Each structure stands twice: as C-alpha cells, then as structure tokens.
Amino acid sequence: MPAPPRPILQWTTFALLSLAWGSSFMFIKIGVTHTGPMTLVAGRLLIAWVAVSLLMLRARVGLPRQKAEWGHLLFLGMLNSALPIFLISWGEQKIDSGMAAVVNSTVPIWTVLLAHLILHDEKLKAGRLLGVGIGFGGVLVLVGLPEVIIGNQVLAGQVAVIVAAISYSLAAIYTRKFAPDLPYLRIIWVSLLSACLLTVTAALALEKPDLLHLHRASLIAMVWLGIIGTALAFQLYYRLLAWWGAGRATSVTYTFPVTGLVLGIIFLDEQLTLQTFLGSALVLIGVIQTNRS
C-alpha cells in the first residue's frame, strides 16, 4: 500500500468530504419533499454510477476477475449505499435535515466499537475514546442535551438514521477487512452497480414514479447528490479510509452538523449563537483528538 501523502493533502481531503457529505442532508430534504425516498435514492445512485463509469474508463481501471471479489463488492453496495442512503432519505420525511446530520454523526462511535471487535489493527485506545467522547459531547451541545435525552427517542426517522449510521460503520470495517488493497474506483463502481440494481428495482416496483414529470427541485437534488454527494464523496472517503483506517476516516461524520450550520450562516443568514460556537468547537476538537490517537 502506498504511503499516505502529506498531512495538508489528507486534511484537505477531509474538509472536502465534510462539505460534500455535510451538504447532502439539505439536498435530501429538498428531494424527498417532492418525490419518494426510494426514487430519490435510485436517481442519485444511478447518476453517481454513470459518473464513476466515465472515471473508470478514463483511468483504465479493470473490473474484478474473481468471484469472491465480485461478491464482496456487491454486498458492500447494499451496506454502504443502498441501505443507509435509503434509510436517511426515508428518515428525513420524519425529521429535519439538521437532526439527521446530528444522528448520522454517531458513525465514529459505532465504528470504533465495532472495529475493536472485528479488526486486529484498530483496537480501542484511551486517546481515541477521549476524542469520540468530546466529539459526541459537541453534537449534544449543538442540538441541546435535554432534547436528545428526553425527546421522542422512538421517532421512526431517528431510528432509521441510527441504523444507517451503523450500516456505514460496518461498511467501512468490511472494506478494510475484505478489500483493503483494491483500487478505490473499482470498489465504488461495483458497489454502486449493486446499489443501483437494488434501488431502481425497488423504486419502480414500490413507488412507480412518473419519470417524465419529476419535480425540478428533485432533479436538481438528484444531480447534486449523485455527482457531489456520492461519486466525488466516495472517492474522497475511500482515500481517507486507506490512509487513516476505519475509525479515523469515519470521524468526518462528526463535522456534518458543523458543516450544516456554517452553510446556513453563509447562505441562509442564520445566527451563530454561543451554543452553536461551543458545540462546533467541541466537535472539531474531538475530530482532531480522534485522528491524533
């Protein structure tokens, strides 16, 4: 495996991934307002698969030759794309995009705990646990601790996004265990192919969308989510996964609430409160601590 690049490039990749995935929650909310969640997911993944196919041709990356490799990557498509993206899209019909981003930011917690049980080279360390705790504490501050603890915890949307977070965690660990040295474009292409087959079939069977009269806002959301939120984001993510490992790479999800808040301040004239400032600071400190350990 090639040595990681200079830290500045690693952190630039981290920041770009935070923007690409962090902004996706807003576009998911726009999309599911005008179309079914499975239709949105199917369109998003199909656009992403076409974009990655063009990159595959340009980079001359070959397809898998072994049945075992096909099997691992097709399963990964369900675990890292079809299931979690649908659950988040469905969940955002029940909860707002900010809450979805906050709940999804628990991915590093599940990853650190599950990686300790599954991977031999990502054992729990005191410093990493400290970073996880600080980051999660920042998330609680951002949304308000009382609301998290005594709010409607059985809300279906919140449960759906929690399951999505666990699925993302398992996908990161699965990739590290079964496909650590494969070209990341090949991993993305095959997994997206699998996810497309699942979601397009489900959308046509369950939601029967009128493809000729999709709402313009949904189409814009699909294109953004497909190109930026999936095709580009997956490339950035798999690079981080190779450089940092599952536990550290998934810490990017801790920045999603911060990314959403920053975008809201810049584009929606939202105010930066003391609670927002303190929560964001804790999230960033937690990410740094997790990646130092």
Structural class: mainly alpha
Low-confidence stretches: none
Sum up the overall morphology in one term: globular
Helical content stands at over 70%
Secondary-structure element series: HHHHHHHHHHHHHH
In whole angstroms, the N-to-C terminal distance is 21 Å
Q: Which key features would you list for this structure?
A:
mainly alpha; 79% helix; globular; 0% strand; 293 residues; 14 helices
How is this structure best summarized?
The chain is mainly alpha-helical and 293 residues long.
Explain this structure.
- 49% of the residues are buried.
- This protein is globular.
- Helix content is 79%, strand content 0%.
- The mean pLDDT is 83.
- By secondary structure, it is mostly helical.
- The chain has helices spanning 7-22, 24-34, 37-59, 67-91, 97-104, 107-118, 126-143, 145-150, 156-178, 184-207, 216-244, 246-249, 256-268, 274-292.
- The protein has one domain.
- The chain is built from 14 helices and no strands.
Write the layout of secondary structure elements.
Blueprint: H1 7-22, H2 24-34, H3 37-59, H4 67-91, H5 97-104, H6 107-118, H7 126-143, H8 145-150, H9 156-178, H10 184-207, H11 216-244, H12 246-249, H13 256-268, H14 274-292
Helix pairs in contact: 1-11, 1-13, 2-5, 2-11, 3-4, 3-10, 3-11, 4-9, 4-10, 5-9, 5-13, 6-9, 7-14
